[in-house]
Each structure stands twice: as C-alpha cells, then as structure tokens.
Design a protein that fits this description.
Elements lengths: L2 E5 L2 E4 L4 E8 L4 E10 L6 E7 L4 E3 L7 E5 L5 E6 L8 E11 L2 E6 L3 E6 L1
Parallel strand pairs: 2-11
Antiparallel strand pairs: 1-3, 3-8, 4-5, 4-9, 5-6, 7-8, 9-10, 9-11
C-alpha cells in the first residue's frame, strides 16, 4: 500500500487562492497517474484534475484556467494550485493515486482535505 498525505486545505475568501499538496510514500512502487477529486455536501465525488507519469494533464472543463495541477521534482508529490476560488469550490478534496508494483496496478485515496470558500 502507498501512503498518501494531503495538506493545504483551509478557509479562504472568494477570489483567494490555495495550494493543495499530496505526497505519496511507500516501497517499491511506481506511479502511473495522480489526480484530485472533490466532493461537496450532498453531491457525488467528481474529478478536478489529473496528471500522468509523463506530466500530461487533464481538467474538469469548468475548472480550466483557475486550477493548475503539477508534480514535484521527486514525482511522488502532486500539487493543485487553486486561484480565484468561488463558494461553489467548497468541498473535501481527495488525492487519488494509481500505482503499480510489478504488473499489478492499485488505487489509493488520501484522507481528504477540507476547502471552504466564503462569499
């Protein structure tokens, strides 16, 4: 299993910015894909953005231009820069990692970090 530690959530006013981090640790694994999902109260969990091992990215259409996903130099850390935040961005944000050991692929989730945007 890969351990995921998220950080960077908090309370921010509308128009503000936050940067989320997700660090993956463990032994003998390689990461195929990392992504951020979010879940607002009463809603389904949705994809925010993802990044491959080759640094190809994908975003939810509604968030393009405001959110930027990236990886650190060590490639096992992922960031989500969120700008011009809106109250509707309020949600728990989850780190998701697809990783493999040998030929078997696994999926793990972080514990989630709360982002609250006040109007």
């Amino acid at each position: 299993q890969v351990q995921l530690v998220e950080s960077g959530g908090g309370l921010v006013q509308a128009g503000g910015s936050l940067r989320l981090s997700c660090a993956a640790s463990g032994n003998g694994f390689s990461i195929n894909y990392m992504a951020w999902y979010r879940q607002a109260p009463g809603k389904q969990r949705e994809l925010v953005a993802g990044i491959t091992s080759s640094d190809n990215t994908n975003y939810a259409d509604s968030l393009k231009g405001r959110f930027t996903i990236s990886r650190g130099n060590a490639k096992n850390t992922m960031y989500l820069q969120m700008n011009d935040l809106k109250p509707e961005d309020t949600a728990v944000y989850y780190c998701n990692v697809r990783w493999k050991r040998g030929i078997v692929e696994y999926v793990d989730w972080g514990q989630g970090t709360q982002v609250t945007v006040s109007s």
